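Reading is simple: each integer encodes one residue's backbone shape. The lines below illustrate:
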Amino acid sequence: MSRPPTNKWVVALSVTFGTLMGAIDASIVNVALSQIRGAVGATVQEITWISTGFAIATVMVMPLTGFFGRLFGQKKVYLACLALFVVGSTLCGFAWNLPSLVVFRAIQGFGAGALQPTEQAILRQTFPPKEQAMAMALFAMAVMIGPALGPTLGGFIVDNFHWSWIFFINVPVGILGFFLVTRFVQEDEDLKQKARVEAEQQRRHMDWLGIALLWVSLISLQYVLEEGQADDWFDSPVIVVVTLVSVFSMVAFVVRELTAVAPAVNLRLFRDRAFAFGTLASGGMFAVLMSGMFLLPLFMQELLGFSATQSGLALMPRTLVMLACMPIVARVYRYTSPAVLGTLGILVNAYGQYTLSGLTLDSSSGHITFALVLQGVGMSMMMVPLQTVALSTIPRERMADATGLSSLVRQIGGSFGVAAFATILARSSVGASAALRAHLVVERPEVQARLLGAEASMLARGMDPTTAHGAASRAFAGTVARQGTVLAFDHLFVLGAVCFALVIPLILMLRRPAQSAGAPVHVEME
């Protein structure tokens, strides 16, 4: 005898735990790298593999969410991945050296990979058509708030406790989420029956070649994006070879999936206009959003002298504004064109990004807060219509395939954005500093006055004239380098605003369907 349907909001709360933890863990480690590096005895280059291993494992699983869901059931896949994530988190806390930590982070990543797309699919199948925007607002909050909370939470833990607690904190939350999903999430019987039929065909024609090509392509692509900057990109023979492997294996994967009897990944979903444009727009936006989440904390910590906790707290206005705005935007969405709402969101976000280009070494927190409030409003206006329309015409039985692909594109887009902006930042800083030095020659009176003032300060501290002159010159060179870095950041914030605007044509292609989701949507109601 089947149980009565569960309240849809309880279902939403139950499946959001895993997504939020996975999103937080993608960024929480970054603020603890120096402490972890000292504990496991790793170099700066080596320690980045704890982030690289997590990212590679995550993208390996995302596009196969629908494939696994048909074989084992969506609920079982979600629970298995949540359990794997909790186990991986526990092992990370007990890691004794770098190789063990990288392996355990990969286990975490394998678990986290399916949580996000599975939650999105469950929410789409749970909420009725008129409340799909609210469902996607819940999902967008988890996806966007996770990376924002990660550095704040990580900074607080590292400043007050042992670094292992950034992993142990997942255990009680994960256990609670596991219990809630087990108790309250139910799978629709019609979908389960269709999945059994397709699963049988998948078992008869297992697409091992497609899975292998997919993994080779994604592993090599993610490696290039994570390690390219450190290896000076295509000046490195390793990066060149790995890039070629990724390109050729991706081409072979696409050919394979379009000709396989039972493809592991349903690429034909991109024939759907709304899904194709929505997914591409989402990937483009995440490239800029993730790069911004990378740049601003770096600016605050490296140039303004903020601690990890302080920079995390400084980012909170954006998170709080998103929490307040997303339910409102979800209601407004019913009466507004998604293209208009999404375009307005992009323009607001682009203006917020442009406002950051005025930051200097003397900027107040109010300047940053104003820009972040604008971004919070803009993100809410962008994410709700985009996520809702992109999946609005996907059949229910294909929802897990679609959410897996869209999650993958967002993840790859975010990795592309961070890699590109990190490279531009490094090179622009050098170029801007060199340009400043070319104008700040010793013969200029203001330069001489600055150097003499610094030298006098050194002499007052008891230095001899020769030492004081050298120290003053080094201090002046350091000031020039810092100002060059500020200029590089400012240019990148402007570039981010321009990149946001470039997504507008894709947003304008989105249209609200006459009837959402094709078939009637199963509703988990009270």
Q: What stands out?
A: Confidence is low (pLDDT under 50) at residues 515-526. The domain at 267-426+497-518 is CATH 1.20.1250.20 (Growth Hormone; Chain: A;).
